[in-house]
Amino acid sequence: MREKELNIAVRLEKSVVNGPGTRYVIWVQGCPFRCAGCFNKEFQASIKKEIFEIEVLAKKILAVDGIEGVTYTGGEPMTQAEGLYHLSRILKKNGLTIACYTGFTLEELNDHDDPYIKKLLSLLDILIDGKYEEDKKTNLMWRGSSNQRIYFLSDAYSQQDFKELADEKEYSEMELVIGKEGIAFTGILEEKILRSLRASSTSRSSRLKKNEIET
Question: Is residue 187 part of a domain?
Fold first, then answer.
């Protein structure tokens, strides 16, 4: 894959549960962590899915009306830091904010030897760090396990903007997207709702696509 390309598993043009406001969400393909209980196991393998040139993808994103930013999740976004850096430069110049999930901690990212990770960090407005840990499973705003932390890396947002973060109370929020291939769901999902959704998946054509934000 060339330096200005991205390998993407799934895209969602508009979401209101993957960060502040209405956001374009990108799930990258490939993740080294293999977290127990991962809801996106099909995004773990390092295989080619949709390959996008950065400029082409940027045009698609900027053509979507009514979004205030983009969220990267996966998979593991930092495995494609170079491509996401180049994409973020374009998006930021056009007034969009950038949020990113990662299984790495911020400390690990700061010590990483990939220079594009630090370059990408310099463009992020929000970082949610930490692997999904099944024994710490919880429903918190934008997080699936209690070890995950939210960092506001620019002046675009602050913790005071979100009452739910200050309270640190249980918080569930989900979206269902009905399409030709079935039902896609995303957000922080309650287990009883997940069981119900999976039980309703009785054929390949109605198979549920798991686009949970837990990294």
Answer: no
Q: Give bridge partners of residue 73 from the DSSP assignment.
A: 27
Tell me whether residue 212 is in a domain: no
Q: Are 126 and 99 in contact (CB under 8 A)?
A: yes
CA-atom Rg of the chain in angstroms: 16
- Look at residue 190 and tell me if it is in a domain: no
- What CATH number did the domain enclosing 136 receive? 3.20.20.70
How many domains does the chain fold into? Answer: 1
108-119 pLDDT, tens digit per residue, is 999 999 999 999
CB count within 10 Å of CB 32 equals 12
Q: Determine, yes or no, domain membership for 189.
A: no
Q: Say what the pTM is.
A: 0.82
Residue 215 scores a pLDDT above 50: no
Is there a contact between 22 and 13 (Cβ–Cβ < 8 Å)? no
Q: What span, in angstroms and rounded, lies between the C-alpha atoms of 214 and 186?
A: 10
Question: Across 18-158, where does the E strand assignment appear?
Answer: 23-28, 50-53, 69-73, 97-101, 126-129, 137-140, 143-145, 149-152
> How far, in Å, CA of 78 to CA of 215, rounded?
11
